[in-house]
Specification:
Chain B: Pfam families: DUF2783. Chain B: InterPro entries: DUF2783. Chain B: This is DUF2783 domain-containing protein. The complex is a heterodimer of chains A (about 525) and B (about 60). Chain A is α+β, with helices and mostly antiparallel strands and about 525 residues long. Chain A has 14 helices and 25 strands. Helices cover about 30% and strands about 25% of the residues of chain A. The longest helix of chain A has 28 residues. By secondary structure, chain B is mainly alpha-helical. Classes of the chains: A alpha+beta (about 525), B mainly alpha (about 60). At the A-B interface, helix 10 of A face helix 2 of B.
Chain lengths: ~525, ~60
Amino acid sequence: MPYDYRSYPYVAPPGLTAPEPRHKVVVVGAGPIGLAMALELANHGVASVVLDDNNVVSMGSRAICWSKRSLEIFDRLGIGDKVLAKGVTWSVGRICHGDDEIFHFDLEREPGQKMPPFVNLQQYYVEEFLVDRAMDHPLVDLRFKNRVTALDQGEDTAHVTVKTPDGSYGLKADYVLACDGARSTLRAMLGLDFEGELFEERFLIADVEMEADFPSERWFWFEPTFHDGQSALLHRQADNIYRIDLQLGWDADPDEERKPENVVPRVEKLVGPDFELDWVSIYSFQCRRLKTFVHHRVIFAGDSAHVVSPFGARGGNGGMQDVDNLGWKLAAVLHGRAPRTLLDSYDRERVFGADENIAQSSRATRFMTPAPGVERLFRDQVLALAGKAAFAQGWVNSGRLSTPCVYPGLGPDDPHLPALTRPGSVAVDAPQGNRWLLDTLGGTVKLLAVNCTAPEGLEAETVAAELNDEVQRRYLGEAEQALYLVRPDQVIAARWVEPERRKIATAIRALWEGRP
Amino acid sequence: MKLIDTPNLDDHDAFYAELLAAHRGLSEAQSHALNAQLILILANHIGDREVLSEALALARKR
């Protein structure tokens, strides 16, 4: 069944009849990032107004591959179970050269974690679940058909002008969050532009509905015979909808290519004649970002701040990591718990994360669409080698799938403890009785005590870990005991084998100040 | 410098002949392909990024 696009109700906002009191936060854009941002702020006790120029969820599947970290964040926002139930959990990827498989990989669910490595679910479902949640939440004021037409900033405030079907009104807020996507209006209003590469390569993406028994796997083809020697990607999504990405070449005419009479024969060559075309879009690759994400009272998150090529699933997941990073920091600044410098650390850390995503996706793009000459030579020979030597399989790049980056500059660290959980990493889940470690850590600063007790009188709640194989392997390694300082976004800030009260207090202070 | 750029291979004249022999009968494109695979195979075998970077720099040096 194709998705039933419902219209959400427009309600005349109070600002049309009388000036509204100053808001803490105005979120612009009710896509997955804007909605998640508002719910995350609400989790930290901050109310927000969410403005969207539209009143339906996004058309077409768009972001479909949700990573383990995004699933963990969805869980915290209250939609984790729905996403798992509706989505397609997968772990096997097959890589073909021509029409033959050269190898496959299995991301295998690591034992003792609540969430699988990846779930495929069309973006419109994720948005629907988030909208339902947001409409129920007393701290989220979601306003459809409210389009921002002007933005200006004062010393300690931002002001937006909003156009509705009933006329325009103004809103004042401490902060405006620009979550308005790759073609961000707010970015244009501030006169900002992306820096980086725009690849001259066009891809066609199509959602097709079919009753097929394709397994729940990711299939990637280099130079298949069914598509004139270009690359192709097939993913299974919910409701028997399959997502197909086909490389078209840089000289393709987008308007011509998106016509059903041109799309259908291409898809037919891949899946046979029995399918319905649900949605088609054409895009060219971009790997670019804003120079900085924090512009005084306006903060950018998601595609408005950075865009990547889609093959590593780093767009939607990268945006969710922005949400994870910004939510607690902005809440702490608004509550007066932390100085404004904490927001500089959002800029620093997420620029770092965006650069990693951009580097990864640029490399994948070059591998998929090599320049003629020596670049093409090496690409083809890696593929040729992958069929006969195991090492070369790892060199084949059909997209390096999204994992959270490890933020630099956090600590102190102890070299005796496992690298997996070093400062800067997101805490790795583990079973805790009939619960999960990430649920136990929650969204506040925690001291995770593994086989030890934390010193008393520190400004952080202590969680005593239940010792089991996973906790041992992930948090102790060869050490007897360890104490971890964990941020509200579940990023490990520091860790000690021999915890000392004074050093821990210093690390907690640094955490709130956002000092590297 | 980690890269060995002093004599290190026994009977290098025989290896040189073996290298040329491997290319015998190949078209220019096939030779390029063989060379590319050889570089990738050797790079993996060496397994030391520092050595490889120094080798690249040496090869580019005029």
